[in-house]
Design a protein that fits this description.
The chain is α/β, with parallel strands linked by helices and 249 residues long. The protein contains 11 helices and 7 strands. Bound molecules: adenosine-5'-triphosphate.
């Protein structure tokens, strides 16, 4: 493939596509991950490919939830590692939180590859391989997770989760933070806090807020999380998109 010139108006987006397609060739990303990425791109277009004020606020509240947590876990899949491996590792150190590789299309080979990539970026004691317990009410392969990680976590950050698993984690009583560009998805609607932003910008946003809030009183952070109204925010994002579309032509 020819080099993409920096002057191309869609340079960033094309480079991201290249990252995902290279990651698929390396066996990090499942082929359906490319389709999921395409759906994300479409919604990114609709929000203007920038972090909205709604997403910035969700990133602030997510940072607060992670900082208050007793056992926070960042759950990663192939697309997440392909796009933001370094950022996940950096955030995991600031919170601090464990990282667990958790795949929809689970194979031991792919889990090992992703763990290695995260370790190359500085992660320590990445979980995911054991799959020694199940998230209740999901079919077998999709339900496997680590007892020490996702299963016993109180707050789970799940960038790019699917709706069933997100709901199943919520049913276990966890605070689930999802990053999903589609405000209409089941994931977006079932998470405790949804960040409607590209995972590339969202991880940086959460880290920015985690640094700013790290020394705040835990009670203040808890109050911030308790006052979050996810449904209202999703309605506001949809209103924002529809206003933007109506003002175009
Ligand atoms: P659900 O099961 O939640 O209703 P879905 O079946 O669309 O939704 P998947 O196909 O499992 O979900 O995951 C793709 C989701 O990830 C899409 O909703 C898409 O918007 C989102 N997505 C893809 N790439 C990104 C990205 N880079 N940043 C944020 N979100 C993304």
């Amino acid at each position: 493939m020819k080099e993409i010139p920096k002057s191309h108006p869609r340079y960033e987006s094309l480079m991201t596509r290249k990252k995902i397609s290279d990651a698929m060739k390396k066996g990090f990303v499942h082929e359906t991950g490319l389709i999921a990425h395409g759906r994300g791109e479409a919604f990114d277009y609709l929000i203007g490919e920038k972090t909205t004020a709604f997403a910035d606020e969700a990133e602030r509240v997510s940072a607060a939830a992670l900082l208050c947590a007793e056992k926070p876990v960042i759950s990663v899949n192939g697309n997440v590692v392909a796009l933001v491996s370094k950022e996940c590792v950096s955030l995991s150190k600031i919170i601090p939180a464990r990282i667990e590789v958790n795949l929809f299309h689970r194979t031991e080979k792919r889990i090992k590859k992703l763990m290695k990539e995260l370790e190359k970026d500085g992660a320590k004691n990445v979980l995911g391989l054991k799959g020694n317990t199940n998230i209740p009410s999901l079919d077998h392969n999709r339900s496997l997770c680590d007892h020490e990680g996702i299963f016993s976590a109180d707050v789970v950050l799940v960038p790019l989760e699917d709706g069933d698993r997100c709901q199943a984690l919520k049913n276990m009583g966890k605070t689930v933070i999802a990053i999903d560009l589609n405000p209409l998805s089941r994931t977006a609607r079932s998470a405790s806090i949804t960040i409607v932003d590209n995972v590339i910008r969202a991880l940086l946003g959460i880290e920015k807020w985690a640094r700013l809030l790290k020394n705040e009183k835990k009670d203040d952070l808890r109050r911030l999380v308790e006052s979050w109204d996810n449904k209202k925010m999703l309605g506001d994002v949809c209103g924002f998109i529809s206003k933007k579309l109506n003002s175009l032509f």
